[in-house]
Structure formats: C-alpha cells, structure tokens
Write a structure and sequence with these properties.
The structure is a homodimer. By secondary structure, chain A is α/β, with parallel strands linked by helices. The first copy, chain A, folds into two domains: 80 residues, Arc Repressor Mutant, subunit A, CATH 1.10.10; 101 residues, 3-Layer(aba) Sandwich (Oxidized Rhodanese, domain 1), CATH 3.40.250.10. Helix content of chain A is 50%, strand content 13%. Chain A contains eleven helices and seven strands. In chain A, the strands form two sheets. In chain A, strands 5-4-6-7 form a four-stranded parallel beta sheet, sandwiched between helices. A three-stranded antiparallel beta sheet of chain A has the order 1-3-2. In chain A, β2 and β3 form a beta hairpin. At the A-B interface, α1, α2, α5 and α6 of A face α1, α2, α5, α7 and β5 of B. Chain B binds a DNA duplex through α4.
DNA sequence: ATATCATTCAAGCGATGCCTTGAATGATAG
DNA sequence: CTATCATTCAAGGCATCGCTTGAATGATAT
C-alpha cells in the first residue's frame, strides 16, 4: 500500500493548492491579511456560518497557511507568515495575467470607463509627504479603526456619494482597500471618476503597504 | 450575470489553484517544464491513460497555465509562460517550508493529550514476531523507502486522516519516526487517539532501532 | 461543581472531481 | 473520397468537497 515517494510529495504540494481552491477560503485569507481574527469575526465578515467557517480554517491550518492560538475562550487565527501572502499574490497575478475572464469582470466593475494605472506605494508615500494627494480608505470603518495609512480618510462605498462634495476637485484622489483580492477600491475609483474627480487606485492594499514597512496609524482620533 | 463580482473574481483565482490541486496535473506541469510535449508523450511519462491525460491538460488550459498548438495530427502543449513555473516553485517552497514549520511548532506543545508511555524496542520486536501489532512509519515516503521496520506501514501526517478507516480498531498501533527529537510520531499518536484508536509511540526512532541491531527493510515492493 | 460561551466535531445531503470506457472529431496520407 | 491516426468528447461509477444541522468539547466565570 506504500505509494511512491514522488507521488507523496506531489500530494503535499497539492494539499496546499487545494486549500487555495475555494473562494470561501480566499475570502478568509484576505481577511486574515488585515490582521489576526477570531472565528466569529471571520464568519461575520465573510458571511459564512460559524461551523462552516471553522472547518475552512482548519483546512487552511492543515495546509499550514494559517496558524491559531487560544485567547481565553476564543481561538485566534492569523496568516502563518508573509509567504502565505506571497503565494496568494502570485496566484492572483497568474490568474489576472492569463485569464481574459478576470479582465472582463474587472471591466464590469469599473462600469466601462478606462481604468487608469494604479499608483505605486512608493509614489503615494512621496505624494503624501508633500501633501499633494487625498487618500481614501474605502474599507469598513472597523477595519479602518484597526489601522490605516496616516492621513487617509475613511468612507465606505455607501458613504461615498455623500462625501463627494467635500472632496477637492483639483487634487488627485488615491483610493485603497484590503488588497489585490478586494474590489472596493476599483468600485470607488469608478464612482469618483463618473463624478469627474481625478481618482486612481493604490497598487495593493493595506497589507501590502504594511509589508513594505510603511507607517500605519492605529486608533483614530 | 454578475451576481457578485467579488465572488466571481475569487472564483477565477480559485480555478487556478484548483488546477494545481491534483498530483496528476503537477506531474504534467513538471514534464512540460522541461519542454513542450504532445499528449501521448505526456501520458506515457506520467502513466496516465490518453483520455485522462487529455482531460487534465484541458483543465490546465482552462486555468491558462498551459497553451496548445497543432502540429499535424498532434496537439503540442507547453507552459504558458515563466509565471506558471514561478507559481509551481512557490507552491513547492511553501509546502516544504510549512511542513518543517509544523514540525517546529509541534515540538513546543508535547502535551495536549495524555500521552501514554512509549513502547520499548524490545517489546515491539516481540509483538511484531507474534503479529499482534500494527506498525506505522510516519516519516516522509522517501525516508521510508530508504529503510524501515519490516512490516511497518508508511503514512505521512497529511495522509493519516485518510487512512484512518483502514486501521484496525482492535489491534494496538505503534508509530515511529526519525528519533527522539522528531515530532511526527507524537503528532500521529495524538491524531490516532483523538479518533479513538489504541496508539502508542515507539521509544526512539529508526536510527535507534537500527543501532540496536534490529532488522531494517530496504527497497520496498 | 454548574453554567455559559466560543469553537470544534460528526453525520448527512447535494454537487463536483477523477478515472474509465467507448464513440466522435479533425487532420493527414493514399 | 476513404482510411488512419491523435486527440477530444460523453457517460457512468466512485470518491471527495462544501455546506447544513445538532451535539460535543474546552476554557472561563459563578
């Protein structure tokens, strides 16, 4: 009943890939890229039931993409390390690079306008230093409170229309969200540009920004 | 169409991951990494039937990991670009790195379940002679192939859950691995006992067994 | 101890995936 | 046109996956 060593190895690799092969688990990883979370919080954010969420998390843990620790009654999950994020990013890059389907979906998101190139993190940091840019954090406010780019203003997609008048029409606006898997920033830029504002998207999201070693402001005033 | 654009995007990313989640397809990609090949050549190299091989290749093509062209009657497949290779490499790196990490983590938590006393090598040898025990080698398959206790069955930790139903519930199970500093056997025993099986750990590992002058079987059938 | 809360386990259902078998397609050679 | 070859399609069996429901576990507080 002993299988070949080679096949056993491939089975291990396949286990990791299989852990990444369900949209629900990618959602969980995206959430965990924001920071460590408990099961209940993850279930709420992703819309999964508690039990289902727990089972997905255990599958991710079996592939060692996440680790967990106890905190009182709660079990807190987090990404094992930056390699997990790298793997997710490369998966996304390959998918977007190769799949015309992805392009069509993103185009559908942008509502048919020509999406401009995203702003690199280095460029945004420079523009921030000279104060020539408005930064918009379009994630839910609890995630904003847990950490955001210094100087960024928070507005969910639902709030976006309301704060439109308060946005300068001359300065450039840069929107960001959770990261490459997240579509909030795409949608925000589409909305802003439809209203004639000069908006672009930040390349990557807050996890990538933090990964670069750039400042993150916690506990808003 | 767009029920949920976000889900649709994640579905596309998951499609790429799913394409990498079958050992057969990883074998095909490994072959293609050495150069473009026809279907028949790939089937021969991997031991798959022609039809099965063709279907796997189409799945890889759907994920845009490979592309194909016609050459006379034959269809020649090749990797789409270097990114496919990068993705395979990162998958392998993460899998191997994570397995080592699991080992380190488990070393920290030796407790967690009431571990029974390990079985001495002399006792195991006697029990083996009378056939009243199931021996489980929980090291990687290549190490198993390089030498193991005669009659031992090989199963990595990842495979353990899958072979659970095939393990006898009445006979005692003895698990061993590399030696006193290796945690595979500890973890295996913990898993088996969680499933209600009567499992214990061998004192020491294969090096100690060999050091005792006891038989070691090389070259598995 | 008992109660409570968060998480995990276990069983069942429907859907999907992998593999096999046998027939259909598409391109080339005579 | 017909025959041949490589590949693909189609249908079936069998296993696995993802989700749900309801109960069990583990840690904490009373």
């Amino acid at each position: 009943m002993s299988i070949s060593p080679k096949l056993a190895l491939l089975e291990e690799y396949a286990l990791v890939a299989r852990a990444l092969s369900a949209p629900a688990r990618l959602m969980l990883l995206e959430q965990l890229a924001q920071g460590e979370r408990g099961v209940e919080a993850l279930a709420e954010k992703t819309g999964l039931t508690i039990a289902n969420c727990s089972q997905h998390l255990q599958q991710l843990r079996r592939a060692a993409l996440v680790t967990s620790r106890r905190d009182g009654k709660a079990v807190i999950y987090r990404l094992t390390d930056a390699k997990t994020l790298e793997l997710m990013d490369l998966l996304r890059i390959v998918a977007e690079r190769n799949l015309a389907q992805v392009e069509r979906i993103l185009r559908g998101l942008s509502g048919g306008y020509d999406a401009p190139e995203p702003v690199s993190r280095a460029v945004l940091a420079a523009r921030l230093a000279e104060g020539s840019v408005t930064v918009l954090d379009v994630r839910p406010s609890d995630e904003y409170a847990a950490g955001h780019i210094p100087g960024a203003r928070n507005a969910t997609l639902a709030q976006l229309e309301q704060i439109l008048p308060t946005l300068a029409h001359d300065a450039e606006i840069v929107a960001y969200c959770r990261g490459p898997y997240c579509v909030y920033a795409h949608q925000a830029v589409a909305t802003l540009r439809r209203h004639g504002l000069n908006a672009r998207r930040l390349e990557g999201g807050l996890p990538e920004w933090r990964e670069d070693g750039r400042p993150v402001l916690i506990h808003v005033g």
